[in-house]
Specification:
With 252 residues, the protein is α+β, with helices and mostly antiparallel strands. It folds into two domains: 95 residues, Alpha-Beta Plaits, CATH 3.30.70; 143 residues, Pseudouridine synthase I, catalytic domain, C-terminal subdomain (Alpha-Beta Plaits). The chain contains five helices and ten strands. Strands 1, 2, 3, 4, 5, 6, 7, 8, 9 and 10 form a ten-stranded mixed beta sheet that branches. Strand 8 and strand 9 form a beta hairpin.
Length: 252
């Protein structure tokens, strides 16, 4: 079976078509797999991640595992992989873990962050990493309403259909537990941070889109609760862009 190696990975997702391997496009999984093949000197199975980040989404602490029979010490993999990986992807740590550890199935919680830049002008050195939103917003209302989605709920209203999971995805439970949901102002940025047991396809981006409707006065705080209870995707706000979204960390 081989050794089970756990990596913590950070990446700028701008140039990639998400995590999932695709034959005609660069992806995080494909780039890492090719690098592992090169560094380890032979074929390896594709690495597994805690979850599939979408095209353009970033990660500060994506957790990945792969199997290998090679004797290279896990700690040496950090430098060896980073020497070959492109500059927009870095291994932060590497360690051997138990055979039954799986980065997705073993996860207890994940935290995502979404960055809205509120200044009039967006620096070209920030444009890949924030959603520039200089328009009027009732930030206090957004901050006050953030906690409305905390707890265990059916998040169907905030879940996009996932074409990669096929028709049976419609039958899967959309119930998730949100442990914390907060908006905060940091300098020129309004930042959303959400920690939960798991997240559905586009869920965080759809939540942000709905909170933006609240900030613009299109809906009220009561409407946020109503949208949650409706279990209807068409009732919620639009899907905001991927450039402001980060997978912050995964807890086990």
């Amino acid at each position: 079976m081989g050794r089970n190696i756990k990596l913590v990975l950070a990446y700028d997702g701008t140039a990639y078509h998400g995590w999932q391997m695709q034959p005609k496009h660069p992806t995080i999984q494909k780039t890492l797999h090719q690098t592992l093949w090169r560094v380890l000197g032979g074929p390896t199975q594709p690495p597994h991640a805690s979850g599939r980040t979408d095209a353009g989404v970033h990660a500060l602490g994506q957790v990945v595992t792969f199997l290998t029979d090679k004797p290279i010490p896990a700690a040496n993999l950090v430098m060896a992989l980073n020497d070959v990986l492109p500059a927009d992807m870095r291994v932060l740590s590497a360690e051997e873990t138990s055979a039954d550890f799986h980065p997705r199935d073993s996860a207890k919680a994940k935290t995502y962050r979404y960055r809205l830049l509120r200044s009039e002008i967006c620096s070209p050195f920030l444009a890949r990493f924030v959603n520039h939103y200089p328009y009027p917003l009732d930030e206090a209302a957004m901050i006050a309403a953030a906690g409305l989605i905390e707890g265990e709920h059916d998040f169907t209203s905030f879940a996009a259909a996932d074409p990669e999971k096929g028709l049976d995805d419609e039958d899967r439970s959309k119930v998730r537990t949100i442990f914390s949901s907060t908006w905060r102002r940091e300098g020129d940025e309004l930042i959303y941070e959400v920690r939960g047991s798991g997240f559905l396809h586009h869920m965080v981006r759809n939540l942000v889109g709905t909170f933006l409707l609240l900030g613009r006065g299109t809906i009220t705080a009561k409407d946020v609760k109503r949208i949650l209870d409706l279990k209807d995707r068409s009732a919620a706000g639009p899907t905001v862009g991927p450039e402001g979204l980060y997978l912050v960390n995964v807890e086990y």
